[in-house]
């Protein structure tokens, strides 16, 4: 089949497997060019099929020689449906590690479910005995409450007043106005349930109660703090409330882990990146485009892979941690430099920037938005036929299981 980008309301409904494969290969080659480090041996990643979770997995597998288990929920390729980019990331990752002496497993299903937690526990016990690190990098728009059998949805909304800003219409390549009305109390509560620290706490507690954690065990979850350019929709919105909950959970887990395992629970504030949700948040595409442009000119821009590699090499398993007053790791310190934030702020104040789509940063944002779905990847001819059945036959492996 011929696979062209299918964009509906700024959401990609398909992915190009060959483009995904080439992007994954480039990430792996990038980490191979970076200094290795001594890290954990057995790692569980909740949400390791894309974004920060995937970058973390690649860094740990190829930079630290760790065994990895990934739990993610991806759309499978079937018939004339391409499946999601994360589905192919998992399959192609399995192919990339097949000659390594380490063990790498993928489980596709609902990470929130008790059944998945039980299956992962059994796998840890069978394959490794215990784990040294749990990364919680799950991004989901909904979470089932297994106590009530109700599906709870999250809402990326401001609090108190509407958030008025702009976004990039990916299909027409125009800057468009975007207004998001404020959340009510119920929507805020639901967002905390879905995107807060509840499930992270459940995972760590379940594995702790079943003796699956090693001495010195660490767990980390990712947050975004941002500054004045993103404050209304992040720290002062429903996302901010969810992140506050996440950070409170980290403090509670840290007390347990420090006492019982001489371990720790950590929160790391990451830099802004291009994600599938970026275009739905007022001002974020504009902010990220200008940010990439300014940081590139200042020679401080990092790829997602380099960013996460630095986290583990220097800050989690190294001695170069940068902490704020709340004990959060500030891996975002380059983004948050006052001169960077002030320059971006001034650029964002422009009513209409005629040069916006010619900026290096804007081109980077748009290109990455396509790349994460396997499109507009250099060297991939999107006019050529793709045999999905052949790809599935070639790359399907027993190390990838649907639950």
Structural summary, described in words:
There is one protein chain. Helix content is 40%, strand content 17%. The chain has a domain at 7-141 and 188-272 and 303-333 and 380-402: NAD(P)-binding Rossmann-like Domain (Rossmann fold). The relative contact order is 0.16. The strands form 4 sheets. Strands 13-12-11-6-3-4-5-14 form an 8-stranded parallel beta sheet, sandwiched between helices. The chain has 403 residues and is of the alpha/beta class. The model has no long low-confidence stretch (mean pLDDT 94). Helix 1 crosses helix 2 (51-63), helix 6 runs parallel beside helix 7 and helix 8 (284-297) packs across helix 10 (338-348).
Characterize the biggest β-sheet: 8 strands, parallel
Terminal Cα span? 28 Å
| Spatial ordering of strands, largest sheet | 13-12-11-6-3-4-5-14
Rounded Rg? 21 Å
Query: Residue ranges: pLDDT <50 for 5 or more in a row?
Result: none
Q: Write the H/E string, N to C.
A: EEHEHEHEHEEEEEHHEHEHHEHHHE
CATH fold call of one domain: Rossmann fold
Query: Would you report the number of β strands?
Result: 14
* CATH architecture identity of one domain: 3-Layer(aba) Sandwich
Proportion of strand residues: 15-25%
Total helical elements: 12
Quick synopsis:
The chain is α/β, with parallel strands linked by helices and 403 residues long. It has twelve helices and 14 strands. The strands form four sheets. An eight-stranded parallel beta sheet has the order 13-12-11-6-3-4-5-14, with helices on both faces. A two-stranded antiparallel ribbon has the order 1-2. A two-stranded antiparallel sheet has the order 7-8.
């Amino acid at each position: 089949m011929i696979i062209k980008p299918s964009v509906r309301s700024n959401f990609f409904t398909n992915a190009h497997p060959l483009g995904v494969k080439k992007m994954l290969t480039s990430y792996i080659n990038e980490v191979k060019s970076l200094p290795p480090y001594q890290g954990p041996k057995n790692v569980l990643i909740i949400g390791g099929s894309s974004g920060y979770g995937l970058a973390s997995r690649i860094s740990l597998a190829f930079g630290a020689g760790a065994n990895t288990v990934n739990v993610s929920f991806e759309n499978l390729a079937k018939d004339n449906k391409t499946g999601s980019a994360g589905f192919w990331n998992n399959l192609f990752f399995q192919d990339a590690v097949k000659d390594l002496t380490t063990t790498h497993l993928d489980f596709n299903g609902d990470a929130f479910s008790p059944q998945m937690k039980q299956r992962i526990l059994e796998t840890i016990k069978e394959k490794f005995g215990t784990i040294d690190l749990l990364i919680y990098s799950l991004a989901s728009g909904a979470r089932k409450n297994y106590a009530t059998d109700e599906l709870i949805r999250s809402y990326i909304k401001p609090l108190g007043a509407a958030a008025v800003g702009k976004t990039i219409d990916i299909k027409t390549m125009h800057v468009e106005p975007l207004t998001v009305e404020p959340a009510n109390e119920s929507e805020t509560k639901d967002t905390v349930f879905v995107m807060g620290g509840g499930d992270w706490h459940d995972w760590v507690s379940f594995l702790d109660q079943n003796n699956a954690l090693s001495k010195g065990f660490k767990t980390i979850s990712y947050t975004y703090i941002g500054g004045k350019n993103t404050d209304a929709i992040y720290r002062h919105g429903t996302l901010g409330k969810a992140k506050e909950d996440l950070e409170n959970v980290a403090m509670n887990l840290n007390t347990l882990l420090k006492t019982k395992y001489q371990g720790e629970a950590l929160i790391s504030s990451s830099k802004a990146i291009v994600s599938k949700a970026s275009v739905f948040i007022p001002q974020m595409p504009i902010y990220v485009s200008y940010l990439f442009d300014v940081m590139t000119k200042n020679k401080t821009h990092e790829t997602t892979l380099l960013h996460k590699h630095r986290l583990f090499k220097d800050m989690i398993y190294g001695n170069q941690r940068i902490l704020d007053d709340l004990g959060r790791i500030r891996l975002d310190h380059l983004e948050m430099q006052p001169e960077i934030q002030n320059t971006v702020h001034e650029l964002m104040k422009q009513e209409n920037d005629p040069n916006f789509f010619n900026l290096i940063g804007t081109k980077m944002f748009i290109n990455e938005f396509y790349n994460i779905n396997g499109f507009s990847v250099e060297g991939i001819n999107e006019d050529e036929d793709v045999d999905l059945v052949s790809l599935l036959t070639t790359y399907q492996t027993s190390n990838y299981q649907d639950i």
